Amino acid sequence: MNKKLTIAISKIILVLLAVYFGNMIFENYYSSLEKNYTIGVLGEKYRLPNQGSRINFYFYYWGEKFQSDNFLGKNEISENQLTYLIEVPIKDIGKSRILWDYPVPDTLKAPFEGWEEIPAFLKKRPREN
Question: Is the keyword Transmembrane in the record (predicted)?
């Protein structure tokens, strides 16, 4: 194998390892954050070059409106289901996430300060897809 090819392969492996471990560190950090839960409304989908689809969403927390976005991944959005439970890190609200396994009815309203944990009546609710 020629030296340039070996160096190129080594660089690719190092970048992949850095991305993998960087993601692990972020997920551990995110898991350690104290979180509340509220209800969010999905907005429009958009696509970034080479990054996949994302979706905007907004939610109210302590009377203030926040906006964020998440990767869409393999989740499919129904025109009839636009409200989902949102996980809100208390000290880093910008990192809020849509909990795709918890669709909520449009008529449900979250408390002003959100819920401290996922409400039991939502945990028992089967996914509508």
Answer: yes
